[in-house]
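Hi everyone, sorry if this is the wrong subforum. Our group has a chain we'd like a structural model of before ordering constructs, and none of us has done structure prediction before. Sequence below.
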Amino acid sequence: MATTVSQDPDCYRWNNAPNLLCYECDSCKAGVLEDIKRDWHKLSVLNIVMLVVLIGIYSIGYCAFRNTQRAETDHPYGQNRMSKV
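Answer:
Right subforum, don't worry. Here is the predicted structure as tokens:
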């Protein structure tokens, strides 16, 4: 009993011409998509790290701004500025 193995259709698209850059084969397309997916994953991790850093810098700046306002008014933290007449 002989089994027939069908050849991959990508093999028929192969050409030995050096001026062709793409042979429209599915194997190359899958490889390119995998590279793009890997690059975008790295970029998304970098974006998340930058977001955390920017939130930290913003928080430090906001705390410093609030501290300078409190120092200029000579009111301790939490004291109400209004008084009853």
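For your construct planning: Residues 45-74 form one domain. The CA atoms of residues 11 and 31 lie 16 Å apart.
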